[in-house]
Structure formats: structure tokens, C-alpha cells
Amino acid sequence: MRHATRLFPRLAPAAALLGGTLLTLLVWWWPNRAQLAGLPMPADRLNSVSFAPFRAGQSPLRNIFPSAAEVEEDLRLIAPGVRGIRTYASIEGDYEVAALAQRHGLRVWKGAWLGRDLRQNDRELEKLVETANRFPDTIERVVVGNEVLLRRDLPPAALAAYLDRVKAQVRQPVTYADVWEFWVQFPEMADHVDIVTIHILPYWEDEPLAVGPAIDHVRDIFRRMRALFPNKPIAIGEVGWPSHGRWREAAVPSVVDQARFLREFAALSVAEGFDYNVIEAFDQVWKYKNEGTVGAAWGLWTADRTPKFALSGPVRENADWGWYAGAAAILGAALFAATARVFPAAAGWPLAILAMALGNALAFAWCGGVPYAFDEHLLVSVAVNLLGQAALAALLLRRAGRRLSGLPAEPDRNGAQATATVRAALRLRLHWRDWRGFALDDLGFLFLWTAAVLQLLLLFDPRYRDFPFATFAVPLVAVLARAALRDLPRRGGGWAELWAGGTLFLAAVVSAVLEGAHNWQALGWTACALGLAAPALLRLRRVGTARAGAVR
Q1: Running DSSP on this structure, what letter comes out for residue 375?
Q2: Nearest Cα to 86, choosing from 266, 237, 197?
Q3: pTM value?
Q4: Contact 418, 441 (CB under 8 A)
Q5: CA-to-CA distance for 544 and 542, rounded, in angstroms?
Q6: How far is CA 293 from the centre of its chain?
Q7: Nearest 5 degrees, angle CA 289-CA 292-CA 296?
Q8: What is d(CA 378, CA 260) in angstroms, rounded to the nearest whole number?
Q9: Which tens digit of pLDDT belongs to each residue from 73-119?
Q10: Where are the alpha helices (DSSP H) in 174-310?
Q11: How far is CA 7 from CA 3, 12, 14, 398, 478, in A?
Q12: Distance between CA atoms of residues 261 and 234, nearest Å
């Protein structure tokens, strides 16, 4: 019995690490398990896909276009799975998509981009007409303008004049493409087109829909438009689902839901006889500047030309989940070993659990940050955040090691002190020796201020902003761990705690109300935000309690 009693403290950390590893595998496997194996794709080829051949570092906003060789490589990649492509502009780069598409047997919905620059509009239309007449067998229709009425770039009369002008100069059917509501709002535009081309994107609807009801919505809208324009062919110019980004009510961007939407829509298109174009072939990372992460995640292939899923067979949300799980487990074990070496007396199961939690938090922070660093500015932000979270993990393990070893605790620091330290560091007035006293509370309070600022942005400008779970993975573990160790700061707070904690708390609550009960992602982030704010606000409560006791 005595032998077993002595053996337990030695085996407990190993058991905790083993259990943590198994739990890590389960936590990473479950959301990434194989799904949709029983949902077949009814066709081997899609009718058409939106084709924008921009790669990482390229953008029409900066006039950086791919080469003709890169465009042809892309067309060669997608040709086996699609019948045609849709383009959006006539003047882009030093290549002609129609000429390259002709080599691969692809039909083209050739577009001209119309905006507020009337001279550029003329150039676009001249190029559109010239190209359509040069490739009559490849370009099967011309699309004069895309969502011009939605953006309010031109009045309906000006758009109608452009349509009539092109119709008089080409043999192909002429159409204009816009969100279906704008065809309802401006039905007179149908008199100027040969085909009514509508966009149906359930994720972006004013009342967003989950992927299941979204398919019924597409069918209902198509039938409604067919009834509204009985003498015109109806084409769906854009239809699709994003693979990443923020939830909008019950609309969940995910790889699995994107695959499900595509397969169910393909089946619906066969049943209803749709003429359609799926948005889009490749993820367009440049779109994040205008539409956030979700705007860059509508492709069937990633920006580096990796297919997100097979058209048939099982689908995984993240095919690399095993690497992340392995990294999390190895990192957790390494953090435990490093801390136990410095604080041997703390090498028990509580430290093992904390180290595994931090390993998972750091792996999650990488997984949720690095793949979405779309340009150099985002990459710097992600790198700074990861370094900050790693430093916070190290400070937390140092503090936990001292506490579990029975050593004197580091002095608590309040928000005003932490803010002063950070200000001095930002002004380069912090001596290198002062960094040795940089405490967990200092860095934790910096994360609190950051969370408050991001929460205000989510409140006042939420449409394209992601919920920053990965940005605060380690700070959330720190709050939970310190609560479990009964190590939350007990010194009185002040104005800094009130402003940072109070702002985060109130903005999170209001944001949750505005997002609605259907958005579980928003509710989950709200719970995290309240958890981050709680320690600062509890310090204010303790001050009040202490003062009340003194009065008595």
C-alpha cells in the first residue's frame, strides 16, 4: 500500500500527459472526421465556374496580373471538371482568356467590368465586342456588367444603353448579372437582355440561411424569377458557398458545408434544368481587403491550386488535422518537461494538464492564424500575436511552477501598472533589465486591451470581421488556469480595469444580441470575451467589498 502511495505521484504526470494526448487527438479529430461519404455528386462536370486566375501576391486592385502561362496552367487544371468558365473583365493582363480557353475546349461567359469611370467602360466594351466577334465559337454569351446596380455605380438607364450598344454589335446572347433582388427591383432591365442572369448566394442574403434550407431557397428563387420573366431564359450567374470565415446567423462557412452545397445544388440543377455558373474556381486572397476572410474562400481550389475536396467521396474540414494534433501533443510534453526541469517540485499532474492545454492553444493559434495571413501586413500581425501568446504561455508556466512548488508568488500588478509598462516599451523607454520584471499581468492586460479594441470593431463594423478565437487562445487558457489554481489577481483594480474590462464586457453583450441566437459562433466568442473581461471586473468588485468592510 505504501509502495502504491509512493508510486502514484510519479505515475500521475505520465498518466496526465497520456490522457492529454488522447484527448488532443479526439479534440482535433472530431471536427475533422470524414463526412458526406453517402452524398454523391450527380455529374462529373460542372456547367461553368467563375474564373479569376489571380495567385498569392497578385491583385486587380494593384494591377498585378498573372502571366499567360499561369492562366493556361489554371485552365488545364480545371478543364476536366467543368464545361465552361465565366470572366468578369475584358481588359486584364497580357493574355486573352478566350484564346487560351479555346485550346482546352472550354466555353466562355465573357464579361465586361462596368463602373463609374465612363472612359474605362468604353474601353471595356470595345474590347468585349472585339473579342466576342473574334471567338464566336468559344464565347457563348457576353455579360455586360456585374452587380452594377447593387453597387450603385450606374443608373438603370445608363446600363440599359450599354446593353443595347453591345447587342447591336455581337451575335452572342447578351446579358447583365446581378443579385436576384435587383432584377425584382428593376424588371425593366429584362427588355435589354437576351438572358436574365441572377446571383443567388444564400450566405449573403439579408436573412442568411443554413446550408440545408439554402438549397430550397435557390430552387424557390429560380422558380420565382422564371415566373417573373416568363419570356426570358434564366441563368444563375453566381451560386456557391464559402469554406472559411465568420458565421452569419445559421450560415456556416466550412469546407464540409461547401462540398454539401455543391453536391446538393448539382443534383437540383439536374432536376430543374438550371443554366448556372458556380463561384468560383480558385480562392481569391486579394478579396479579403474588401470582404474579409470569407470573401477569399469561395474557391473549389485553394489559392495555391490544391483542391479543397473531391467532387465525390468523404470530405474532411481540415485534412492536415493530424499534423496539428501531433504538434500540440509534442509541444505540450515539451512545455511540461521544460517547466519541470526548472521547478522539479511542481512536476505533477496539474502542471501536465496545463502544459497540454497550452500546447493545444498554441497549435490552434497557428492553425487559425498563419493560413489566413494573406499579405505581408497580416503576416506581421500574426507573427507578433504568436510571439505574444508564446511569451504569455512561458510566463504562465513560470508562475504556475512557482505556485505548485510552494515558492513565494510573484507580486500582482494592476492594470495601470501594466499599461505604464507597455507604454514605456512602445516608446522604447524600457531598459533591458526592466524586461526581466515583465510579469504575466502586464502581458495579460495587453491582450485584454487588444480584445476590447477588436470587440468594438466587431460591434460597429462586423460584416467582414472574423471572431478572433485563435488570437486569444493562450489568454483564455491563462484565465482558466489561474482560476483553477486560485491565482487570479486580488489587488484592487482601477480605471484601467474599468475601461478595458468594462468595454469588452458591454461590447460583447451588445454584439451577441445583435448577432442573434442562431449564430453559435458569435455566442461562443461572447463567452470567451466575457471570460477575458471577468478577472479585471472582479478586481473592481473586490475593491468595493474591501471598502465596504472598512466602513463597517
Answers
A1: S
A2: 237
A3: 0.91
A4: yes
A5: 5
A6: 4
A7: 90
A8: 30
A9: 999 999 999 999 999 999 988 899 999 999 999 999 999 999 999 99
A10: 180-185, 211-228, 255-272, 288-295
A11: 6, 9, 12, 26, 30
A12: 21
